[in-house]
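Input chain follows. Return structure tokens only.
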Amino acid sequence: MNADRYVRDVQAGRLEAEAYVDLFSDLHPPLDAHEAHVEADRCYFCYDAPCMTACPTSIDIPLFIREISTGNPLAAAKTIFNQNIFGGMCARVCPTETLCEEVCVRETAEGKPVKIGLLQRYATDAAMAADKQYYTRAASTGKKVAVIGAGPAGLACAHRLAMHGHDVDVYEAHAKAGGLNEYGIASYKTPGGFAQREVDYITAIGGITVHYEKALGADLSLDALAADHDAVFLGMGLAGVNALSVPEADAAGSIDAVEWIEGLRQADDVASVPVGRRVVVIGGGMTAVDAAVQAKALGADEVTICYRGPKERMKASKYEQEIAQVRGVAIRYHMTPIRVVAADGEVAGVEFDRDGETVMVRCDQVMKAIGQSFAADSLNGSGETIALDGGRIKVDADGKTTMAKVWAGGDCVNAGDDLTVTAVSQGRDAAESIHRALSA
């Protein structure tokens, strides 16, 4: 190829200031009181509610919707928080279209489900706006539990343990709590600093001390934590990033999508984040979609998601794929990367195999979103061996690992689907198992 034809053009400030406000505004504006009541009235309040069965945290959906319909959103919020203390975030990021709303009877009958996610947000936002606290700590048990990771699994576990009167030390590798809610979710899904407001709301129960910039393996050892605490919960998520094993994969302009999203999330001004004119995102999951949509929102002229499989196998839901396409992102399927093409060490394009044909996609920036992995080296130095399953921590039905006094949940275990709502469920249930063990 002629290298002179390709000039890498990655810079910040591509758009006018007001454009960023619009493009990074709330993906789904909240319902007002009238809209919430109208939507709640659409619910059939099914006796054998399939929506409740489809919810990983088993929220009593018909009950909280009925409470909204009778003008009591604060009662609805308590019904939600009883099962899912991260109900506010899950209302924003949970793929309701493939969970509760997919099995809604209204969806089956009319192709238009009750907007369960937006109703959940309406109720939980009302509670947080009023700083309505529903839970208090039980009398101190004198027991102390270490929680590794201040993400959804870790904080859900910590909150439930605090309810039972246990003291909880949470150790977080980052400078802020929230996990992927803070560092890995597209900005347009959770604008206005919601992730940190939710963390503050959850930890307000008391009895939870968060220690920042403390990473297992680097700053902490599992055997020492187990010796100093009555129990340990591992909820550190996935720290490893899968490598793109093709030539020139690390050429200048080829970056990790997870790290790029984290930088964007922590930027004081999104306009300061550089983006290319032509961006290729390699992958097919939520990270790929979030990176692609935000790259377009930052002013990229062309953004293309290239996924190695067919549309129906993409991990990102059909709904998320549609969001990307509506926002100007092209999605190409059956695209297996062969090599990153570099000119003078800088990205100039990517070659793919598409059904036996070599296809070249020109670009000046490549974002790699091909999945994350569990960094098992963080467990080195533990007093006992923790068994792995499929490259992640092996747990039983109660979240127990093969090491005494140690439980785990969330993305670091091989027992879920990498969803926030599932991580919350696993953290909550592990806390109940820990409480039973400490009360025996």
